[in-house]
Amino acid sequence: GAGVSQSPRYKVAKRGQDVALRCDPISGHVSLFWYQQALGQGPEFLTYFQNEAQLDKSGLPSDRFFAERPEGSVSTLKIQRTQQEDSAVYLCASSLASGGIEKLFFGSGTQLSVL
Amino acid sequence: DQQVKQNSPSLSVQEGRISILNCDYTNSMFDYFLWYKKYPAEGPTFLISISSIKDKNEDGRFTVFLNKSAKHLSLHIVPSQPGDSAVYFCAAMSGTGANNLFFGTGTRLTVIP
Q1: End-to-end CA, chain A
Q2: Residues near A100 by Cβ (< 8 Å), separated by ≥ 6?
Q3: β-sheet bridge partners, residue A68
Q4: In CA terms, which of A72, B13, B32, B76 is 20 to 30 Å from B83?
Q5: Which of B30, B24, B39, B40 has its CA nearest to residue B90?
Q6: A42, closest residue in chain B (CA to CA)
Q7: Are the beta carbons of B99 and A40 separated by less than 8 Å?
């Protein structure tokens, strides 16, 4: 596709349920990032992949959060035993390895609501 | 602790007038600053940036000013157009890589026709 695609667009989960959020980056983009944007806040960094290697996961808020990118393209962010504080928009972004920060392309996000 | 702050959650401006969006930061190690624009149901898109070695960068109707001593930057939009209505995020980074990018809370700009 032409842009970064994220699915589902909306996800409602009951507290304690596991969820999986998908990101399809722009074809050929080496770098992939996940951000969490809580209501009324700016995006906050969660984790970063270069190809299939997860180079930085310092932003993951707890060990309930897990991300993978096994073949260096599609990435999945998994949240286990969801809590109400996990409710947020989860944004994925991708860029070429040589692309500067201005060439970071964001998807439209997955809005997660935990009831 | 919020390292990048946008203290005005919203701003309304008449079409044709100047829009000024402000941003403050606390980390003196930040050396690169960006503004992103976000429409509803879309992801943020890059608008304009400035390096800490400059105090001004201009791109068409958009100009970003940086005051390092005050740890303050601002985005000027002249003239404002209805299509500029969006949420604007200020972001700052030290070093390279989007894993070092810190965003403000955003300012919702409404340009009134």
Answers
A1: 33
A2: none
A3: A76
A4: B32
A5: B24
A6: B105
A7: no
Q: Which of residues 31-60 of B touch A (CB under 8 A)?
A: 32, 34, 41-46, 49
**Range list of β-strands (E), A1-115:** 5-7, 10-13, 19-24, 31-37, 44-50, 53-56, 65-68, 75-79, 88-95, 105-106, 110-114
**Longest Cα–Cα distance in chain B:** 41
Q: Which residues of A touch B52 (CB under 8 A)?
A: none
Number of H helices, E strands in chain B: 0, 11
b/e map of B27-55 (b: 16 or more CB within 10 Å)? eeebebbbbbbbeeeebbebbbbbeeeee
Model confidence pLDDT, tens digit, residues B36-69: 999 998 999 999 999 999 999 999 999 999 999 9
SS3 B100: helix
Which of B44, B98, B103 is closest, CB to CB, to A101?
Answer: B98
Q: A91-95, B51-55, B94-98: which range is least confident on average?
A: B94-98
- Flag if A108 and B89 touch (Cβ within 8 Å): no
Nearest beta carbon to residue B43 from set A59, A103, A108: A108
- SS3 of residue B13 by DSSP: strand
Partners of A107 on chain B (C-beta within 8 Å) are: 43
Interchain pair B45, A106: CB under 8 A: yes
